[in-house]
Design goal:
It is a single chain. The chain is of the alpha+beta class and 297 residues long. It has three domains: 80 residues, no CATH class; 84 residues, no CATH class; 117 residues, no CATH class. 36% of the residues lie in helices and 27% in strands. The strands form three sheets. A six-stranded antiparallel β-sheet has the order 8-9-11-10-12-13, sandwiched between helices. A hairpin with a 3-residue loop joins strand 1 and strand 2. 25% of the residues are buried.
Length: 297
């Protein structure tokens, strides 16, 4: 069965299952880093928001030998796990005076998101772009967000500077940053990605938030990184683990930045989903200058 037939079969089976209680449709979605997927949407009549399932990943299961019946069952189970238990209150989004308390920002790779950035208010930061989202209530799948586009900003009659000001206050309040050591976790998950010349020399610390959602925005808060550097008594290398997390590493004289670049590219290639890759370069935090710069090696 080819992918086109698979799509038709799955949508037919889902529509027969839900009957007139839901609409089943497939919508092409462009995700971070210009990654396009077929989003499978089950829009129940009783709920005003629905999770989007990545349909092609289920087709890959089919190609690996899974039966269409088993895959259909998996889709239903995944949908039920991520389905909101009730309608989400979205009326606040129509008024900036209410929406502004929910605005956060995230960082994405600038070059990989040029098309998206044509439609979204943003600022440049190193090789990244700062974009804005509206954080919604928790869902079974985690926090839901709405990307803020130019037309939202125009409707609210606000500037991107106002969005930045709101996000600067809200992001650490709504998604507070945490730092914790991760050597054991990293060693367990991807030992081959850590070069021997790095593995036994340094400690690694992950900086994100409890929701592990857009945690790389910590780059926009050098005061937090400054406090950590002061506690460590040294400058820091900052490794872009993903859009959800950065890694902090004490800057030792015998660490070659080229090795860090190789490690980042290796991890991106083998261990990070393409739509979650943040960057391919390490960064450097200087205590003396109190700033973050990009290391191009």
């Amino acid at each position: 069965m080819n992918y086109t037939t698979f799509k038709l079969q799955i949508t037919r089976m889902l529509q027969e299952h839900f009957k007139s209680d839901a609409k089943i449709f497939i919508q092409p979605l462009t995700k971070n880093n210009n990654i396009t997927i077929d989003g499978l949407i089950i829009q129940e009549n009783s709920i005003n928001i629905s999770p989007t399932l990545h349909l092609f990943s289920y087709y890959e299961d089919y190609q690996r030998g899974g039966s269409i019946e088993k895959i259909f069952k998996n889709i239903l189970e995944d949908y039920k796990k991520r389905r909101p238990g009730q309608n989400l209150e979205l009326s606040f989004f129509t008024q900036y005076d209410l929406a502004k308390y929910h605005i956060i920002f995230k960082v994405v790779h600038y070059e990989s998101n040029r098309e998206l950035l044509k439609r979204a208010p943003h600022f440049r930061f190193l090789d990244l772009a700062v974009v804005f989202s509206c954080l919604l209530a928790d869902t079974p799948a985690g926090n839901a967000t709405i990307l803020i586009l130019n037309n939202h900003m125009e409707y609210w009659n606000v500037t991107k500077e106002q969005l930045f000001s709101a996000a600067k206050t809200n992001t650490p309040a709504l998604l507070p940053f945490q730092i914790h050591p991760i050597e054991e976790l990293l060693e367990k998950m991807m030992p081959e990605a850590i070069p021997p010349e790095i593995k036994d020399k340094v400690s690694l610390y992950a900086m994100s938030n409890p929701s592990n959602l857009h945690g790389a925005s910590a780059l926009l808060y050098p005061e937090y990184i400054q406090d950590f550097a002061a506690a460590q008594g040294c400058d820091l290398y900052i490794l872009p683990s993903s859009i959800h997390e950065i890694l902090l590493m004490p800057a030792e004289d015998d660490i070659n930045p080229q090795d860090l670049t190789v490690m980042i590219c290796e991890v991106n290639e083998k261990h990070v989903q393409k739509d979650e890759i943040l960057s391919y370069h390490p960064y450097y935090y200087s205590r003396k200058k109190q700033e973050i710069t990009m290391l191009c090696v």
